[in-house]
Amino acid sequence: MKIAVAGTGYVGLVTGVCLASKGHDVTCVDIDKDKVEIMQKGVSPIYEPGLSELMTESLAHLTFTTDYQGAYRDAEVIFIGVGTPEKQDGSANLSYVYKVAKQIAESVERDCVVVVKSTVPIGTNDKIEAYIHDKQKNDVKIYVASNPEFLSQGTAVKDTLHASRIVIGVEDKVPGEILKNVYDGFEAPKLVVKRRSAEMIKYASNDFLALKISYVNEIANLCEIVGADIEEVTDGMGYDARIGNKFLSSGIGYGGSCFPKDTKALNWLANFNDNEIRTIRAAIEVNENQKFKLIKKAKKYYDDFLFLNVAVLGCTFKPGTDDLREAASLVNVPLLMEDGAHVRVWDPVGMENFKKHFPEKIQYCKTIEEAITGADLCLILTEWDEVKQFDVQKYEELMNKAIVLDGRNCYTLDQMKNTKVIYDSIGRSAVN
Ligand code: NAD
């Protein structure tokens, strides 16, 4: 089919490339000229495992452009995958989505389905449909369908090609059938539901996961106080099929472009409708506090950070991505710097983006060894494999004072007991 995708971020580009890999002719549109130029050379502007390779394989079916009119004019299906960031009051900023909706309304010259993949509050698809119908220039039939995205950054290609489910929210039979055809080559359960249900499935799913993380983090915090071990506790919980063993890792809280904004958006939506969603509000509050957990722990070892050399391992919000949105590093590093610390950062793919936030005063290190050599303190913020596989003896050998505060529980306590490293992690007793 002839498909257009608006937005070539983590969702749009992965969607476009995966659809092209199944033989659809896909035109990916973005307003960012630099990004488009990079993609026109066959290069992915974002880091996502497997994406570059699949993009190279599928180039015959891919076009990258800023010319939205040309792309939307005769597309059978147009996906909207632009951002819906958080506004100051917690609600979702829909201006990018509406901008695309306007561009579509002014461009299309044939019947088509507009598919909203961006995460949007319940009821938005109805409004987009009315908006497009009001603004459309040509007398063609434009359907609007909701098709929320569930991919995780770091595993986005795999998640798209082998989705847990494909949710298709429609009010008419026709767009439902067209979308089933689009996804014909994808092996995944396809759920056709009401548009508002589709929008809610996305928020309810994301917010449940955020809730799960905040719940485990609160249990971890209590474990530290009462002398239990969170790793043993979550292992024991995970055997219960009703709970499941996924998403039970404790740490310094969730980040990224989705959980923080999607929890706040649902909370906002509930309040706007004179309703309360107390569990989600609690998840948000717990997560805000959890981000400061390592800094609070550091105060056990140092009164202040003046002139301390502090190594920060990992600056992305999770491993497998170069994305820094709502990453713990963006909260912790400024606190260290304001207090006079010399900060060295190591991350395998996130440092270029981190430099945009902190172009000065930070030492960027090529290796973990370089970051920790002579350091008085080490904070682990992202559980990269390189960190998990790092020889822990080296902390003892290379650091000035071997104090490792691990916000992601990368090591077992037994590993650390064989060293002289002071190791303080989340939900477990400190070692040494
Ligand atoms: P992103 O910020 O990475 O990318 C958005 C892209 O849209 C940018 O490249 C931007 O230049 C482009 N854009 C803006 N206006 C445009 C326009 N008028 N025409 C064409 N392109 C335009 O965003 P993302 O992380 O891919 O998220 C997109 C949506 O998907 C959001 O609603 C998000 O909540 C949702 N989502 C994201 C994830 C994720 O893991 N990132 C997962 C599921 C759902």
TrEMBL record:
Biological-process GO terms, alphabetical? polysaccharide biosynthetic process; UDP-glucuronate biosynthetic process
Pfam families noted in UniProt: UDPG_MGDP_dh, UDPG_MGDP_dh_C, UDPG_MGDP_dh_N
Which Gene3D superfamilies did the record assign?
Answer: Cytochrome c1, transmembrane anchor, C-terminal, NAD(P)-binding Rossmann-like Domain
Main enzyme class: oxidoreductase
Q: InterPro entries from the entry?
A: 6-PGluconate_DH-like_C_sf, NAD(P)-bd_dom_sf, UDP-Glc/GDP-Man, UDP-Glc/GDP-Man_DH_C, UDP-Glc/GDP-Man_DH_C_sf, UDP-Glc/GDP-Man_DH_dimer, UDP-Glc/GDP-Man_DH_N, UDPglc_DH_bac
For binding substrate, which residues are annotated in this chain's numbering?
202, 247-251, 255, 318
Write out the catalysed reaction: UDP-alpha-D-glucose + 2 NAD(+) + H2O = UDP-alpha-D-glucuronate + 2 NADH + 3 H(+)
Q: Which UniProt keywords apply?
A: NAD, Oxidoreductase
Identify the SMART domains for this entry. UDPG_MGDP_dh_C
Q: Which residues bind NAD(+)?
A: 30, 35, 84, 119, 261, 325
Q: Where in this chain does the record put each UDP-glucose/GDP-mannose dehydrogenase C-terminal domain?
A: 311-413
| MF (Gene Ontology) | NAD binding; UDP-glucose 6-dehydrogenase activity
Q: Which pathway features in its UniProt record?
A: Nucleotide-sugar biosynthesis; UDP-alpha-D-glucuronate biosynthesis; UDP-alpha-D-glucuronate from UDP-alpha-D-glucose: step 1/1
This entry's Enzyme Commission designation comes to 1.1.1.22
Q: Which residues form the active site?
A: 258 (nucleophile)
> What's this protein's family per the entry?
Belongs to the UDP-glucose/GDP-mannose dehydrogenase family.
NCBIfam families (UniProt xref): NDP-sugDHase
Q: Which PANTHER family match?
A: UDP-GLUCOSE 6-DEHYDROGENASE TUAD, UDP-GLUCOSE 6-DEHYDROGENASE YWQF
From the Swiss-Prot or TrEMBL record, give the protein name: UDP-glucose 6-dehydrogenase
